Amino acid sequence: SCGVVIEVGEGVTDYRRGDRVAGNFPHASHAVKPVERIHKVPDNVSDSDASWVHLGKIVQVGTRAAEHVLGDSVVIIGLGILGQLAIQYARINGAETVIAIDTAPRRLEFAQSHGAALTLNMTADKAKDDVKRATNGLLADVVYDITGHPAVLATALPLARKFGKVVLLGDPGNPTAQHITSDVIARGVKIVGVHDGHPSELPNGLVRWSAMQMEKLLLHYVSTGQLRVSDLVSHRSRPEDAQEMYDVLERDRASVMGAVFDWK
């Protein structure tokens, strides 16, 4: 969320009334947050763009776990909000080719406009030949499964090159329904699981970037134009119309990208 400071507690010196701040707030018109959990919003970043701060951090956790190197070929399966951000992060990390896979044509259009070199309107189990052609027969260095669907893992593994990686950025809810394939043993494909809660609050010997540092970096990327989120907002709504908005999401999720509630 993004909002305006209306009151500060005793001893707070870095913030004052009227400051715009962003963070992971509850769905409410007012919220109380500790200063170490909010960010000042750069002047050239809109309220709507700043509200992506927490979603941007979640995807950063995944792209850091992927350990990208310059020239990577990347496949992203699932082009909802997280998938669209993953395309841009992969490009920032130096990917040569980003291949986007989804069955929703509109999501593929978003993906292309944000840097996907190839968009495939199909399920992942049908994509291997296209991925092979796009990568000169090598297959992908990194494959992201951002669908949250347990059946996709088994179709994502064959898209990774020998000793490549499949990053699971999305909780399937029922992981016992996921299945590995011979690619893990025979071709050494690694499976990397990531979760929003992996980074600690402060950097330590295991975690270089804290959650707050990653959120701040998202604001920097948006401020400098290296990452674009404004055109990913497809729907705007008032909180009073929340039920109608959620009905749309339930009925036709593929027609919606970012949905913003304006509490003003």
Description:
The protein is 30% helix and 19% strand. The protein contains nine helices and eleven strands. It has helices at 47-50, 53-66, 81-92, 105-113, 128-134, 153-156, 183-186, 211-224, 242-251; strands at 2-4, 20-22, 39-40, 73-77, 97-102, 118-121, 140-145, 160-168, 190-193, 233-237, 258-261. α2 (53-66) crosses α3 and α2 packs across α8. The longest helix has 14 residues, at 53-66. The protein is globular and about 60 Å long.
Provide key terms for this protein.
264 residues, alpha/beta, 6-stranded parallel beta sheet, 3-stranded antiparallel beta sheet, 9 helices, 11 strands, 30% helix, globular
Short description:
30% of the residues lie in helices and 19% in strands.
- Strand residues, percent: 15-25%
Q: Order of strands across the biggest sheet?
A: 6-5-4-7-8-9
Query: Helical proportion?
Result: 25-40%
Shape: globular
Tell me the radius of gyration. 19 Å
Q: Overall mean pLDDT score?
A: 94
Describe the biggest sheet? 6 strands, parallel
Strand tally: 11
Order of helices and strands: EEEHHEHEHEHEHEHEHEHE
The first-to-last residue Cα distance is 13 Å
Low-confidence stretches: none
What structural class do you assign from the helix and strand content? alpha/beta
